[in-house]
Amino acid sequence: MTSQRKHIVCSLLLLLFITSHVTAFEVNVTQSDYNATVNHSITLEWTFPTNTSTSHDKTSIACDVIAEQKSYIVYQAVGGVEVPHTQDERFSGRVQSDTDALREGRLILHLSRLRTEDSGLYVCDVGTNHGGGSAVTQLNVTPITPLTVKVTQSSYQAEENHTITLEWAYNSTGSAFEELDVHCSHLAKPKELVLYQVYKGVERPEFVDGCFSGRVQSDTDALREGRIRLHLSRLRKNDSGQHKCAVRTCCGYGFALCDLNITAAVHRPTERPTPSPQPDTGGRTGLSIGLIAAVVLVLCVIFVIVRMKGHSDSQSVCNSRTRLFQRELQVRA
Ligand SMILES: *[C@@H]1O[C@H](CO)[C@@H](O)[C@H](O)[C@H]1NC(C)=O
Ligand SMILES: *[C@@H]1O[C@H](CO)[C@@H](O)[C@H](O)[C@H]1NC(C)=O
Ligand SMILES: *[C@@H]1O[C@H](CO)[C@@H](O)[C@H](O)[C@H]1NC(C)=O
Ligand SMILES: *[C@@H]1O[C@H](CO)[C@@H](O)[C@H](O)[C@H]1NC(C)=O
Ligand SMILES: *[C@@H]1O[C@H](CO)[C@@H](O)[C@H](O)[C@H]1NC(C)=O
Ligand SMILES: *[C@@H]1O[C@H](CO)[C@@H](O)[C@H](O)[C@H]1NC(C)=O
Ligand SMILES: *[C@@H]1O[C@H](CO)[C@@H](O)[C@H](O)[C@H]1NC(C)=O
Ligand SMILES: *[C@@H]1O[C@H](CO)[C@@H](O)[C@H](O)[C@H]1NC(C)=O
Fold it and tell me: Which residue windows are transmembrane per the record (predicted)?
């Protein structure tokens, strides 16, 4: 008989001894069943009556799981002291209990890094110096299924200062909106910048990075239909790069990426309306000649005005202007 086996037998005998000499009491489960997913954690809880007149009530606990028609020790405590080495190795380092809560009549088992094989019936025996009893609860651990998240467009191109709508779609079949987590970010270097965050169906703008504050709007109606639509406004050149949206529901996780390319705004002169474009090159040449002639004319007029300033009348100015204009046309012809 190995020392571990001996210990288990001793502990059980001790527990039996404690419980057999006292009256039975009712141990209750706070939930008759628990559902969880792989890699998550869960807290199982039992309650039992305490004796308020004895301050140092020594409680002994033995919790087993019955799975695949076998029984495994999940947790043991004798006289309020944990007995970790009797625990089955499959639970090693994954079970935590609160011994202080025992004094309040609460048995709390916190199971972490859940596996599908943790599923089963959890039976806990409680023994105190004023009574004993047991209760059972069921735990179901379901595997995480990959959640399909898709981009409706894999790359987007937009101009600086414009607005763009990025869109993702996910398949939330069989999951409540209240369990939906969405995390969208710009995979910028050196750090990821959060642009949109939903936790348990509620938008959390406080997690959005400062450089996106006031620039991102989401379509919450679309979100309920499985579409993430983000309107990103006042685009900056450094918004360029990969953008990721990750979705987590009760039972799955997935993400998709899209590329955003923000190009510099094309400078458009605003001081003067652009001349209407000419359809053919012949017309354009004619226009250029006309424009040059007009400019030369204006310069000449100014020159003549300056030269004749003070000793000429308006008639001579008009003549000079006509003459100069005619000469210019001869040169061009
Ligand atoms: C756990 O899942 C089962 C089956 O889907 C359901 O009937 C039960 O109500 C769930 N329990 C809890 C506590 O959510
Ligand atoms: C669970 O966690 C482990 C380690 O963190 C990881 O390797 C594994 O892929 C996870 N499994 C699932 C289904 O998420
Ligand atoms: C256990 O449940 C029974 C019946 O619901 C109740 O009378 C009793 O007070 C409960 N005990 C504890 C310790 O919660
Ligand atoms: C509490 O403990 C005292 C002393 O051991 C005992 O006399 C009393 O009957 C106990 N009360 C209950 C409710 O068990
Ligand atoms: C969503 O997932 C379910 C179950 O995996 C599948 O039956 C259904 O066809 C999927 N719907 C879409 C739109 O992909
Ligand atoms: C992006 O550019 C804006 C100015 O256009 C600047 O304020 C901001 O800090 C830049 N963000 C990053 C992450 O470089
Ligand atoms: C962004 O778009 C411009 C203009 O079409 C292109 O020249 C450039 O290569 C693109 N950059 C990336 C990173 O795709
Ligand atoms: C973008 O908008 C800001 C503020 O409206 C303006 O100051 C800036 O000149 C604009 N940039 C370009 C390239 O148009």
Answer: 286-306
